[in-house]
Specification:
This protein is α/β, with parallel strands linked by helices and 811 residues long. The chain has 5 domains: 2-113, 3-Layer(aba) Sandwich (GIY-YIG endonuclease); 114-186; 282-465, Rossmann fold (3-Layer(aba) Sandwich); 467-516 and 573-710, P-loop containing nucleotide triphosphate hydrolases (Rossmann fold), CATH 3.40.50; 720-805, Ribosomal protein S10 (Alpha-Beta Plaits, 2-Layer Sandwich). Helices cover 32% and strands 24% of the residues. The structure holds a DNA duplex (12 and 12 nucleotides). It is an enzyme of class 5 (isomerase).
DNA sequence: ACTAAAGAACTC
DNA sequence: AGTTCTTTAGTG
């Protein structure tokens, strides 16, 4: 019998294994990689075939009689290639998650199908006692009238019973009065456009026949000029040609109205404003020469391109992409945030106008699907986007570029908690592709790996045209306070703003906190108002609401303190909203635009804000760290960083690294075109090496000092970290389970070097929705051994434990 | 995640 | 006893 091993697309750890199905004769063409529709339990779900095998009854053993047949195929071709399956399997093993959970990342949307339940009446039960009730009778009669309807359709037909329809339907199914059927439909919608196709040759004689039908004559002329005599209705409409005219001409048999699929692409009309750089610098050439042999021979290798801001890393990316495309291989270009795709698309479009698709999670499902279709048809070979672009179905990747490789947003912070760098590296290995990590300030991990010889370091230390780096000035905020300035804005920064505006130039100001006030406290009893779900302080926003930046929950500001009923409630700390207000007061003539998560909810909000700023409609761009990333605005000559060190006091071993990178990156935004920029950094820790090295743009200096600390504390890159989060309603159970694991770990690794386990300790959000959370941290030099140990302990199958490999937040 | 079956609580 | 709500096991 022909059988298939199938992983069902259900994200539950306890069923993270293959189930065997029989393959009916009419589906005998199915192979590994196909998405299918299968019966599972009492319902039908999507599944992924991972292998197909001919099996005898003996081989099947006692399962022989229990096999259910695969119902249908979801697509017309296999969705997962062998390489994709291989990558998904490796990643599932590495991150200790289920294969299905990993595989569903390789599709746009979590599932390829939408399953609807269709209810049908059972005729034999027409006189069931339960149907004496009017509501039940109405539903039954409604279904008896026609074919069978979904819940939504019944609700539409019987609006009176809509509210308790679910209960009615459940009940009727329970008694067998109604039957259920599961129907799978495509989730995404293909879009079509109508177009006119010219059938005849347009000769002067033919046009003469339409002397008295001017509109149709015009249409003929337009179509004869068009490519292949085809033109979309939308384009014709733009030329004031009505559908009536088109239909008339179709009646006459001279044209044909047809339909074709259009692939949506909201980046299609990106204007080509980028000037191609013609002469490469010496450094650029060196970098390209180092990588080219590997690309030409189709050999995997990893490179770290360390180039200061303005050294022309993008041009290196483009040159390498050209070479990969010339060999017929595909290219993936990753950026840390969706907002930065526009920038890269712009640069690449100048060289590859039609060879690009954009892929990220803010696109609609259909749009992502259209992008996949374009890639599959060979309509584009360069995928640009955020993390999720890595999972585009590509069969021949030659080059993976990861810009700003140090950026923490490359780590997915929900399950499966993968790091794009790990995925990129594994894909590069499987495809024998070149991996190119780019950064001005590489992560300590990557830089360390170049010293270990695992990656090849390429450097570009000079800015193009040898432009000077900006002048950086540090302002000690303690000093400011002593001088009597209690504003967020120091006087030197205020002065810089005024001077810059006087010259007609622009300023970027970065404050790493959104909202108005960072916490709200009662002055009588000291109670800080906290989120009901996670107990973290709520942030006050100017719209009068308190919001939790962790759970995205908002609530109104209470009139009196919830603890002591005092009316003395005050706002402390400052965010971007408050700074915006203060700027208006201190520099009334300044036109300020704010960019943070609150003002960038829509797909193109980032681009719109930056565009307005670029067009000089505003003087000051004020925002959170997103203003520090990758934008190049010529007229910006000054940058202010409000509290560069706010992260230094966090309980995170990467605090110093974060602070250093924030300063270097933000400072890099100033003065990229001719004029030397000026940067002011406000800090309470002017002596800290992260601040001093940041100001001096001294990566090596920072690296050396930080590495000493990391080694002393056995932190990455000298170890790798695995975070385990234990959750339980009972505090003691959560803690006890964690404790048990710690004991088992110590037993297992007794005497082994390079293994350390810490905890359990309460998580930052110690209690979430009534569930207690404890954290255990493992530091190891032998990650595979730890992964193996966790698998032995069956930890990856437990619903109450979340495993995070290479976590970003420790607690 | 969802279903179906088994068990516990509740109504009459 | 009959019904309804809750818990639990199992999905090929």
């Amino acid at each position: 019998m022909l059988t298939a091993n199938v992983f069902v697309n259900i994200p539950v750890k306890s069923i993270a294994r293959a189930y065997t199905y029989s393959v009916p004769a009419e589906l005998s063409y199915l192979e590994a990689g196909w998405r299918v529709f299968v019966p599972f339990g009492g319902r039908k779900v999507e599944g992924f075939i991972v292998s197909v095998a001919e099996k005898t009854a003996e081989e099947l053993g006692d399962m022989a009689g229990k096999l259910k047949p695969i119902e249908a195929a979801v697509d017309e071709e296999p969705w997962f290639s062998d390489k994709m399956l291989q990558a998904a399997q490796w990643l599932a093993d590495f991150y200790l998650c289920s294969l299905a959970e990993m595989m569903r990342l390789f599709m746009p949307g979590k599932s390829g199908i939408k399953i609807t339940v269709i209810y049908q009446s059972v005729p034999e039960q027409a006189n069931h006692l339960l149907l004496a009730m009017p509501a039940y009778r109405a539903v039954y009669d409604c279904l008896s009238a026609g074919e069978g309807l979904s819940r939504g359709e019944i609700g539409k037909a019987l609006p009176d019973y809509k509210t308790d329809l679910p209960q009615i339907l459940d009940k009727l199914c329970q008694y067998g009065i109604l039957s259920k059927e599961y129907q799978a439909g495509k989730r995404e919608k293909a879009r079509y456009e109508k177009f006119a196709q010219l059938l005849a040759e347009v000769t002067p004689e033919l046009l003469a026949e339409f002397k008295r039908k001017k509109a149709q004559q015009h249409l003929l002329e337009v179509l004869s000029a068009a490519e292949q005599g085809q033109m979309a209705f939308a384009a014709l409409k733009a030329q004031k040609i009505t559908t009536a005219t088109i239909h008339n001409l179709a009646e006459a048999g001279l044209i044909q109205i047809r339909q074709r699929r259009v692939l949506r692409d909201s980046y299609k009309d990106t204007e080509l404003t980028c000037q191609p750089q013609i002469n490469l610098t010496l450094d650029q050439n060196k970098a390209i020469e180092a990588m080219t042999p590997f690309l030409s021979e189709g050999k995997h290798h990893g490179f770290l391109l360390k180039g200061v801001t303005g050294s022309g890393k993008t041009q290196v990316y483009i040159e390498m992409a050209k070479k990969a495309r010339a060999k017929g291989r595909q290219v993936v270009v990753l950026v840390p945030e969706i907002a930065l795709t526009g920038q890269v698309v712009l640069a690449f479009k100048a060289y590859f106008p039609d060879d690009i698709v954009v892929m990220h999670s803010r696109l609609s499902l259909s749009e992502r699907n259209d992008a996949v279709v374009r890639v599959r048809r060979g309509g584009a070979g360069i995928v640009i986007g955020a993390r999720s672009a890595l999972f585009t179905p590509l069969d021949n990747i030659g080059l993976i570029i990861m810009d700003e490789e140090q950026d923490m947003s490359y780590k997915q912070d929900e399950s499966p908690r993968y790091h794009a760098k790990v995925v990129a590296e594994e894909l590069a290995k499987i495809h024998q592709a070149v991996l190119l990590l780019g950064s001005a300030t590489p992560s300590l991990e990557s830089y360390y790996r170049t010293q270990q010889g695992e990656l090849t370091l390429l450097t570009m230390p000079k800015r193009i045209g040898d432009m000077p780096l900006p002048v950086v000035q540090c302002v000690d905020m303690r000093q400011e306070l002593r001088m009597g300035n209690r504003h967020i804005l120091s006087r030197p920064l205020q002065l810089l703003i005024e001077q810059t505006m006087a010259k007609g130039q622009q300023i970027i100001i970065m404050l790493n906190r959104r909202g108005f006030s960072t916490f709200v406290m009662c002055r009588s009893c000291g109670e800080v108002i906290k989120c009901k779900l996670c107990a973290l302080p709520l942030v006050y926003h100017k719209n009068g609401k308190l919001s939790c930046h962790h759970c995205d929950v908002t609530e109104p500001v209470p009139d009196v303190c919830p603890k002591c009923s005092s009316r003395y409630i005050k706002y402390f700390g400052s965010g971007t909203e408050k700074l915006e207000q203060e700027l208006h007061q201190i520099v009334p003539s300044a036109r300020v635009i704010r960019m943070d998560r609150d003002t960038t909810n829509t797909k193109f909000a980032h681009q719109e804000i930056l565009q307005k700023f670029r067009e000089k409609q505003y003087d000051i761009l004020l925002g959170t760290q997103m203003v520090a990333k990758g934008h190049d605005i010529p007229n910006v000559t000054a940058v202010g960083i409000i509290s560069a060190d706010s992260s230094l006091n966090l309980p995170d071993f990467r605090a110093a690294e974060r602070c250093f990178m924030l300063i270097t990156q933000t400072a890099g935004r100033a003065g990229r075109h001719g004029t030397q920029g000026k940067v002011i950094i406000q800090t309470y820790n002017p002596e800290h090496y992260a601040v001093t090295c940041g100001i001096a743009q001294d990566y090596e200096g920072f690296y050396e000092q930080e590495m000493v600390l990391r080694q002393g504390l056995f932190y990455p890159p000298f170890s790798r970290i695995v975070k385990l989060l234990f959750q339980h309603e009972e505090e003691n159970n959560a803690k006890g389970n964690a404790q048990k694991l710690v004991i088992a770990f110590n037993e297992h690794f007794a005497g082994a070097k390079g293994q350390q386990i810490i905890g359990p300790s309460p998580a930052v959000i110690a209690r979430f929705r009534g569930i207690y959370r404890f954290v255990v941290l493992i530091k190891t030099t032998d990650l595979p051994a730890v992964q193996e140990f966790l698998r032995e302990q069956q930890l990856h199958l437990r619903a109450d434990v979340a495993i995070d490999i290479d976590p970003i937040a420790m607690l």
